[in-house]
């Protein structure tokens, strides 16, 4: 079916039977799944969204954050920033915590912080909040905060 702007399908938000779910699953994946399998999957999804599970995930995220583990790996822009700073022969550290903030790159010898601002996220950012963050960093000994956009890094 073709997408028509403003059109709401007749079945949007309506519950589907297990038989309907099975038909859709077969159509999308080509794999026949039993009704029992679909029911187990639905129960598991419901269990994963309980307040207890969400609280456990939040505690794990807080532990990781406190231990300095912020995410799995650098973004493409952070890799480009790494290449730029390496080619400029800067001795820098990545993902450094300053109080409640984590910066993309810190050059301690010059007191510089570099931030890789992607076009999507940077466009939606609150400029006043960013200015407060930069002032917070400068109050803690940072000489300058340098924001490099996606266009600067690619």
Commentary on this structure:
- The model has no long low-confidence stretch (mean pLDDT 83).
- Strands 1-2-3-4 form a four-stranded mixed beta sheet, with helices on both faces.
- The chain has a domain at 76-153: VSR Endonuclease (Endonuclease, Chain A), CATH 3.40.960.10.
- The protein has 154 residues and is α+β, with helices and mostly antiparallel strands.
- The protein contains seven helices and four strands.
- It has helices at 18-29, 35-48, 51-66, 76-87, 119-124, 127-139, 150-153; strands at residues 93-98, 101-107, 112-117, 144-149.
- The protein starts with 17 loop residues before the first helix and ends with a helix.
- 8% of the residues are buried.
- Strand 1 (93-98) and strand 2 (101-107) form a beta hairpin.
- Helices cover 50% and strands 16% of the residues.
């Amino acid at each position: 079916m073709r997408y028509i702007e403003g059109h709401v399908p007749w079945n949007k938000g309506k519950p589907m039977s297990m038989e309907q779910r099975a038909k859709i699953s077969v159509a999308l994946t080509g794999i026949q799944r039993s009704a029992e399998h679909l029911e187990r999957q639905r129960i598991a999804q419901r269990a994963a969204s309980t307040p207890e599970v969400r609280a456990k995930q939040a505690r794990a995220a807080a532990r990781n954050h406190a231990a300095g583990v912020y995410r799995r790996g650098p973004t493409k822009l952070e890799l480009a920033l790494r290449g730029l700073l390496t080619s400029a022969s800067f001795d820098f550290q990545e993902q450094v915590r300053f109080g409640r903030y984590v910066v993309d790159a810190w050059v301690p010898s010059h007191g510089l912080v570099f931030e890789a601002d992607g076009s999507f996220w940077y466009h939606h950012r609150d400029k006043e909040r960013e200015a407060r963050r930069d002032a917070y960093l400068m109050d803690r000994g940072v000489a300058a905060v340098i924001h490099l956009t996606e266009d600067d890094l690619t």
